[in-house]
Specification:
By secondary structure, the protein is of the alpha/beta class. It has two domains: about 40 residues, no CATH class; about 190 residues, Rossmann fold (3-Layer(aba) Sandwich). The protein has eight helices and six strands; from the N terminus they run ααβααβααβαββαβ. The model has no long low-confidence stretch (mean pLDDT about 90).
Length: about 240
C-alpha cells in the first residue's frame, strides 16, 4: 500500500514541476520543457541589438545607434535577452507574482538554452534591489535564481547585492514615464565591499521598460567607482 501511495506523491510532484501539458495553452506536449512547439515559437529572443543602449535593431547588432549615439549614459553596455510580450510576459508574470514553479523552470530552460556572449566582461553581477516591503510580501527575490543562472553561464561570476533601496517608493508600474524618473532619484545607495575601484558590475533586472530604475541604479554604482553594464531578461 505504501509504494502506490508514494508513486502518487512522486507523480504529483513531477506533474507540478514538469507539467505533462503545455503551460501556456494546455495542449499536449511531448517534451519536458513545459511548452508545446507552437507556444515555444511565440517566444522571441533578441539577437540584433544596440550594445550601448540595448534597443532592438532590425538588420544587425551595432555598437551604438541613432537613439543613443548622442546621449550620455551611465553604463557602458546594455542587452536584453527576450522580447517582453506574449508567452514570455505571461511566464515572467507568473514567476514574479504567483511563485509559479513551472513557469520558473521554463524560464530557466529558455535562458539556459540561449547562447550568451557579452561585449562586457563583468567581475560581479548585481541584481536590482527590491523594495523591502514588497520583498517581504512576496517572500523571495524573484531575480536571484536567474542572476545565479546567468552567473554560471558567464563563468561562475559572483552575484552580490551591491545596492540597497534606502527609501520606499510607489511601484513604478503605477506611474507615468515622467513620474517614474522622479520617483527614484536618490532612492538607492551602494553597500561597501572590498571590490577594487573600476570593477565591472553587470546590473541585472527582469524587464527594461522606460529604463528609469536601471539608469538610477547605474548612476549610483558609477558614482561609487564601478564600470557598469546592464542585462535584463526582456524588453
Amino acid at each position: 500500500m505504501l509504494i502506490p501511495a508514494l508513486k502518487k506523491v512522486v507523480s504529483f510532484i513531477l506533474d507540478s514541476v514538469y507539467p505533462p501539458f503545455c503551460w501556456n495553452c494546455g495542449g499536449s506536449t511531448d517534451n519536458s520543457v513545459g511548452l508545446c512547439a507552437l507556444c515555444a515559437e511565440k517566444i522571441s529572443p533578441i539577437d540584433k541589438f544596440c550594445s550601448r543602449c540595448g534597443s532592438v535593431q532590425q538588420t544587425e547588432s551595432t555598437p551604438s545607434c541613432a537613439y543613443c549615439s548622442s546621449k550620455r549614459l551611465p553604463y557602458e553596455f546594455c542587452r536584453s535577452l527576450f522580447r517582453y510580450d506574449g508567452v514570455f510576459r505571461k511566464l515572467l508574470t507568473a514567476h514574479k507574482y504567483s511563485s509559479d514553479t513551472a513557469a520558473t523552470r521554463i524560464l530557466k530552460h529558455l535562458i539556459n538554452s540561449l547562447p550568451l556572449s557579452l561585449d562586457f566582461h563583468p567581475d560581479v553581477i548585481v541584481p536590482v534591489p527590491q523594495d523591502r516591503r514588497r520583498l517581504r510580501k512576496r517572500g523571495y527575490d524573484h531575480l536571484v535564481p536567474f542572476a545565479r543562472l546567468i552567473a554560471s553561464k558567464l563563468g561562475n561570476i559572483p552575484v552580490l547585492s551591491l545596492l540597497r533601496k534606502k527609501v520606499a517608493t510607489p511601484p513604478q508600474a503605477s506611474l507615468s514615464d515622467s513620474m517614474r524618473k522622479k520617483n527614484l532619484i536618490g532612492a538607492f545607495e551602494v553597500i561597501p565591499t572590498p571590490l577594487p575601484k573600476k570593477s565591472k558590475a553587470l546590473l541585472f533586472d527582469d524587464v527594461t521598460s522606460t529604463g528609469a530604475t536601471l539608469k538610477e541604479c547605474a548612476k549610483t554604482l558609477k558614482k561609487a567607482g564601478y564600470i557598469v553594464g546592464l542585462l535584463t531578461l526582456s524588453r
